[in-house]
Design goal:
Elements lengths: L8 H5 L7 E4 L9 H14 L5 E5 L20 E6 L6 H8 L4 E4 L2 H12 L4 E4 L25 E6 L2 E7 L5 E5 L2 E2 L5 E2 L9 H9 L4 E6 L1 E2 L19 E4 L36 H10 L7 E4 L6 H8 L7 E3 L4 E2 L2 E2 L8 E2 L3 E2 L2 H9 L5 E5 L2 E3 L4 E2 L2 E2 L2 E2 L5 H7 L3 E4 L3 E2 L3 E5 L2 E6 L3 E2 L1 E2 L9 H6 L4 E4 L3 E6 L2 E7 L5 H5 L8 E7 L12 H5 L8 E4 L4 E5 L4 E2 L2 H18 L3 E6 L4 E2 L4 H14 L1 E7 L3 H13 L6 E2 L2 H17 L3
Helix pairs in contact: 4-5, 4-8, 6-7, 13-14, 14-15
Amino acid sequence: MADNKVISADEAIALIRDNDVVTTTGFVQSCIPEALHAALEKRYVETQHPRDLTLIMTAGAGDSKGLGTGRFHHEGLLRRVIAANFGRMPKVAQAAQDNKICGYNLPQGVISQLYRACAAGQPGLFSKVGLYTYVDPRFGGGKVNERTKEDMVKYHNIMGEEWLFYIATKIDVAFIRGTSADPSGNISMEREALVLDNLAQAMAAHNNGGLVIAQVERIVEQGSIKPKDVHVPGILVSAVVIADPPEMHRMNYGVIHNPALAGEIRVPVEKFAKMPLDERKVIARRASFELPPNGVVNLGVGAPEGIAAVANEEKMTPYITLTTEAGAIGGVLAAGSSFGAATNADAIIQQNQQFDFYDGGGLDMTCLGMAECDLQGNVNTSKFGGRLNGCGGFINISQNARLVVYAGTFTNGGLRVEIADGKVNILQEGRNKKFLNAVEQITFSGKFAQKRKQPVYYVTERCVFKLVDKGLELIEVAPGIDIDKDILAHMDFKPIVEHPELMDKRIFIDEPMGLLADLINLNMSDRVTYDADRNILFVNLEGWHARTKKDIDELRKTLIEASEKVGKRVNSVVNHDGWKINEALYDDYAEMIDVMSQQYYLTTTRYATSAFARLKMKEALSKRGLQPHVFERREAAETFLEVVSKEEEKTPA
């Protein structure tokens, strides 16, 4: 007969030895094996053992007030911590800052993937994640204090490419969590919001001859869990602990159980609460203008969370796929204590697999928070204001997404903002500046992003910046905001200020923006009109945003249909005022113009008030040998067209 692996939490914890390496599951406030954490804390307080443990974890797992891994703060319990996030266990973070324990702050995805390396008996992991950040051994190697001496990250140049090698740490004990277990230790997760890295962690500990302790909600009959529903097979599990009392197995610290987050039911999303029109919603609304139709998007914690609510309010959810690094794909992303999960998700995959997808370039866009930003476009979210917060999944996500949008208030610490009459009013300025000459720690490298031509925006409630070759450029300003008084006066450096535009007025009015039509170009045919008397095709791209190649293809299709309807070659005048095109798409746009010029146009002129837009278009068109007729005003474009037409009339056939 199979062994009965069900024992008490105290019996399980008694198996842990001094100096063991312990890993635990959990994401922010979800899926935390609280009963195991509590039992470990209790045993140490009573006996002073096990002591000098190494804790390995990915995302923070706690409420920042002492629950979760925050229970491990007692002096002597931990000797070393390897984690992506310290903010959820502030007393442990303080011990690291006080040089009482050794500590490493490594990217969440790297730690997640290292579980697999440990399971496979591999020495570590090669990755580009972390290059040119504080994790790069040339800039600190992820060590959080002076006491930490041993290198866990090595720099290598392999066949002309830069790589980081992360050294794997063998695991002795894994705390995992599931919903149901049979006596043999087969674990299912039907009532969990996420599956995280439970399987990889269990394999890593088991294959190292260690312990796998699983916390579950209930015990079921032997063989009653369907094979495909078993997330962790019993062959890996050493002991099963039933959470007692049941509050020790809450879905997260704010929710006992939500069947919609567990994927047990689907619920109507129309009834979701609407965000109030405040600075947080303004930021989320402006960031939502960058959403790529039919694209895959990651949202970070804080201000970016609001994008999910805005997308739902604007009925855009069916046209984008929102994801979290914890493994949720699709649906409406949850916020607050449920962050990381999703209602009506399409799929929940393992965290390490999600990071494989992210690291490989699967994300079309990410929106992340920012604590500090500097003149080079560097962003810090890991260590600031005397706090060791940690990077979480920030580095994996920000370095590998095709488009990065940073979102957050312009200042913080007492900031009070009013959105009224379509304007932003700063009632009380925040005490702390976010835009500094130099960030305290580089969690995102602006120079590295420029090197890879990665588009980067910085969205606040009062303005928008873009990362350009010379640094940060102020490209948009909210109505009601004075550039000198409300922006430049609260920055340590002066950004590039050339031709900033007003942010879209719809953002500041408390009614649906109609953003869906803009995002999927529903009204593209309405942007093209034909003047038969002058044989001019007017193309109005004002406010149009080309986010993906599909947008360029849709414009090409519309222009060809309009030209073929005329039945002869046409002159064209194109309005580029307020248009946007992602950096990587300029060549595709120029290729489309080349086709139109070869087959459908007589002459083309363009106008745009933005000097930067004119410059980029001229560069893209000139590379293809096209005449870059780009003017500042419509009148100049039409005058040029008339002159050319008259010259052609004089030319003998």
